[in-house]
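Posted in: Structural Biology > Protein-Ligand Complexes

Title: Requesting predicted complex, pyridoxal-5'-phosphate in pocket

I'd be grateful if someone could produce the 3D structure tokens for the following input. Sequence and ligand are given below.
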Amino acid sequence: MTRGPATTLIHHPYRAPEGWEAVPVPVAKASTVLFKDTADLHKPRPRDGLTYRYGLHGTPTSYTLAARLATLEHAEYCLLVPSGLAAVTLPSLAILRPGDEVLVPDNVYGQNRYLTESWLPQWGVTHRFYDPLTVPELRDNTKLVWLEAAGSITLEFPDLLGTLAACRARGVTTALDNTWGAGLAFNGFEPAPDTHPGLGADIVMQALTKYPSGGADVLMGSVCTRDRALHDRLNHAHEHLGYGLGQNDVEMVLRGLPTMPLRYEAQDRVTRQLASWMAGRPEVAKVFHPALPGSPGHQHWLAVGGKAAACLFSVVFKPTYSARQVDAFVDALQLFGIGYSWAGPMSLAVPYDMSRSRNLPLPFEGRTLVRFAIGLEDAADLRADIEQALQVLA
Ligand SMILES: *Cc1c(COP(=O)(O)O)cnc(C)c1O
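-- Reply #1 --
Done. Output follows.
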């Protein structure tokens, strides 16, 4: 029987020989995954990262990334999701039920605040915002406590050890947003060297969009756990929410991982130089960076190792400068892009009016703050650029 060209091309008998070994992981893309025969189709296929069933549930490429991220975080299990935000929403959606309360630090990533304030109440879930520098009060219906180290924009470093220990003692599930630490500054599951018996968070998530990608080009997230029952619960929600990934994006993150420790360290070094220098400038009222003594939560950062820090610092200008002047300063920067996200190659600067985005009192006077995210440019050029832009404040 002769077949038409389409059938011939689709059912082509040639298979590439086995034995291809190379440094990068091949990109495996599929919706359909083929079974050998109906007996193979009917076999049970637990979602354990060892079998294939359908492209949405994992391919060799995505399983490989998940396994490497679990190792990075010192976890047993890792779920991949299509954005850092999806990694934020998954634990809350999977764990919280009507009548439960979730606690969220006041400096939490903005989208987690919106989820907590405007979505979760629809499902009968209540919330409280807590001061990240203190251990929050736990109540009988407190089901989940979020932590973020350091927190977004103002970068106060929370009392990780105190809060995680209090939650463990009460059996309250904890979720740590580890995007800032990237699995390198400390890890949420394991002990920090010589300081304490262990952080012991239950869930550690990351926006892979930031350091693991490193290219300002991919959106992705990870949700890691050590506990099988908790992982199964997250996995169940993951399955029903239909979180799929483009395997070319997965490949991009796999490509970013080997250079991540080098990038983290280089960006940390330049960020600290610029943050310390800015702290001594006459225009500046306050600089937030967890490694700077006097920055809120500095002692909590020391308590979890106190070695590495991410590429972020925030500057509060003296109240004599208006929001318009601070905007003009940001506009005068030539090497800093104006835009969200961070940990990519290009440095970024964003002015924030913090007056509407917090429930508790702000850790500084005044309204306007500029958050800097340091990229991979030459340090001297970045400093010279900030120096020339400060002239517009004069
Ligand atoms: C960027 C970020 C997220 C969200 O990541 P996206 O991939 O942009 O959705 C979550 N948490 C923190 C702390 C972040 O900085």
